[in-house]
Write a structure and sequence with these properties.
The chain is of the alpha/beta class and about 350 residues long. Helices cover about 55% and strands about 10% of the residues. The strands form two sheets. A four-stranded mixed β-sheet has the order 1-2-4-3, sandwiched between helices. A hairpin with a 2-residue loop joins strand 6 and strand 7.
Length: about 350
């Protein structure tokens, strides 16, 4: 007897894609606190700060003197309090965290609990602790010490300033103005039609060294974060934040087009022909003699090079001459270089 059972496939992962005012507000506040804002090209800082009440402007000015470019590690708080749509609920959840949970998450979530407890008890101990990335420079150690010594006032000031930003007229006008771009970025993201892990790696533009059996995936487009990308994750949740001011493109289609051209160039005789035609115009019989093949074979090679838009043809009298197309060659080299450029 033969048995065939068709089990219905079920997806264990849940995928959510939407704009989050909480994520946007957190990124905007972090950017405001940084001395060096080179990674945040799209933010009108003066307009944001001008719209804030005086206590928030004082808070930003004070902490800008101490903060480092690693401040975005505080987005780890999104894993502790996954209230992405309601900023008041998010702040309530953050306020309810213990000091150790808040400090660990705010500093990026990698510091062991015993070290966090020791630092909370004695911030000066950071000077004698074994070096870690979180305090690998004097500037980072200075910020962490100040942060721990004024933890309660910092937490309060941070959350109040966050709420002032998100509820401010500038933020609300910005989101309304960018709503169409937000919606478009989400539509384009869904069109990619990849499995969640592959999609998150595609959006980030890299293969993850650390992965897990994620059950929840969140994709958040951000105007303020453009053109950067960031992944925040634990053993079960993967959050990908991407700047939508630069559109997502499906590189799979680009790779197909490039592969067609590269396949044409993979033949050594065609490369020799192209090389000769980069030097001067030539006709088929001369090319056949140069390469050492029949004229019929050269015609086949020329046809493929023409279809790949690498050469052009012109008739002078009764003879067809061929030459390299410099515009198309430069375009191909530019696309290939962009495609294979290592993103740092």
């Amino acid at each position: 007897m033969t048995i065939e059972i068709n089990y219905e496939e079920t997806a264990d992962e849940q995928v959510h894609m939407f704009f989050s005012p909480v994520v946007e507000g957190m990124i905007l506040l972090c950017a405001m606190l940084l001395k060096n804002k080179k990674d945040f090209h799209y933010i009108d800082y003066q307009s944001v700060e001008k719209a804030l009440p005086e206590p928030s402007r004082v808070f930003i000015e004070k902490w800008r003197r101490y903060s480092t470019n690693d401040l975005l590690g505080c987005l780890e708080l999104l894993l502790k309090v996954p209230q992405f749509q309601n900023e008041k609920d998010f702040c309530t959840g953050i306020s309810a965290l213990s000091d150790i949970d808040f400090v660990q998450s705010f500093l990026g979530g990698e510091i062991p609990s015993d070290l966090t407890e020791r630092l909370l008890a004695s911030p000066d101990d950071i000077e004698s602790m074994e070096e870690r990335y979180e305090w690998s420079t004097p500037e980072k150690r200075q910020f962490i010490k100040k942060f721990l010594l004024e933890l309660q006032s910092f937490r309060l000031g941070f959350l109040e300033t966050f709420l002032h930003i998100v509820h401010g007229d500038f933020f609300q006008k910005l989101i309304r103005a960018k709503q169409e771009a937000i919606d478009h970025s989400l539509i384009e993201l869904k069109k990619l039609n990849m499995k969640p892990l592959a999609l998150s790696q595609y959006v980030m533009g890299k293969t993850f060294r650390r992965t897990s059996d994620y059950k929840l995936y969140y994709f958040f487009p951000s105007y303020s974060f453009s053109p950067s990308k960031m992944r925040v994750f634990n053993h079960a949740v993967c959050i990908v934040i991407f700047g939508y001011a630069q559109p997502l493109n499906d590189d799979r289609e680009k790779s197909k087009e490039l592969s067609k051209t590269l396949k044409v160039l993979s033949d050594p005789n065609r490369l020799l022909i192209l090389r000769m035609l980069c030097v001067k115009k030539e006709y088929g019989a001369r090319l056949a003699e140069y390469v050492g093949v029949t004229t019929a074979t050269v015609s086949h090679h020329l046809d493929l090079l023409k279809k790949a838009n690498l050469i052009k043809e012109e008739k002078i009298g009764a003879i067809k001459y061929f030459s390299a197309d410099p515009i198309q060659l430069e375009k191909f080299k530019s696309v290939l270089q962009e495609f294979t450029t290592i993103k740092t």
